[in-house]
Specification:
The protein has one domain: HIT-like (HIT family, subunit A), CATH 3.30.428. Strands 1-2-3-5-4 form a 5-stranded antiparallel β-sheet. 20% of the residues lie in helices and 22% in strands. The mean pLDDT is 97. Strand 1 and strand 2 form a beta hairpin. It is of the alpha+beta class. It has 2 helices and 5 strands. The termini are far apart. The longest helix has 17 residues. The structure holds adenosine monophosphate and zinc ion. The site of zinc ion has 6 residues, from helix 1.
C-alpha cells in the first residue's frame, strides 16, 4: 500500500500520530476532525496515500463505495439523528488543505461553525 512519511494522514493511518479514531479497518481510518465545523465532524480517510479525488480512477470505486456506505452507520453510532453532510475538497481551487484524500462527514444540530 502506498504511503508518504511526510503526510499527516498517512502518519495517523500508521498510528504514528494520535487521532481520536472512531473506526478502522484494513483500508480505511476514520477520526474526528481536530477543528470541527459541526457538533459531529469526522474525516473518512483511505489508508493508501491517494492525494485527491483528481487521482481517483475506476480501481478506487470499491474503496470509495465502502467509505460512502460506512458513513450512515458511523453517524448513527455518533448520535446523529437528523441528517448530515458530505464534503470532499479537491486541489487548490477546491480548498483542499491536506493532500491525502479524505471525506468530511458532518452532522448534529445547527447552527454549525461553518458549512
Ligand atoms: P481539507 O483538506 O481542507 O478538506 O481539510 C483538512 C481537514 O483536516 C481540516 O478540517 C482540518 O481541521 C483537519 N485536520 C488537519 N490535521 C488534522 C489532525 N491531525 N487530526 C484531525 N484533523 C485534522
Ligand atoms: Zn498520505
Amino acid at each position: 500500500m502506498s504511503s508518504d512519511s511526510n503526510c499527516i494522514f498517512c502518519r495517523i493511518a500508521a498510528g504514528q500520530i494520535p487521532a481520536n479514531k472512531v473506526y478502522e479497518d484494513d483500508e480505511i481510518v476514520v477520526f474526528h476532525d481536530i477543528h470541527p465545523w459541526a457538533p459531529v465532524h469526522i474525516l473518512m480517510v483511505p489508508k493508501a496515500h491517494i492525494v485527491s479525488m483528481a487521482d481517483v480512477t475506476a480501481e478506487h470505486a470499491p474503496l470509495l463505495g465502502r467509505m460512502m456506505a460506512l458513513s450512515p452507520r458511523l453517524m448513527r453510532e455518533l448520535g446523529v439523528t437528523d441528517g448530515f453532510r458530505h464534503v470532499i475538497n479537491t486541489g487548490r481551487d477546491g480548498s483542499q488543505e491536506v493532500m491525502h484524500l479524505h471525506m468530511h462527514v458532518m452532522g448534529g444540530p445547527r447552527p454549525w461553525a461553518k458549512g
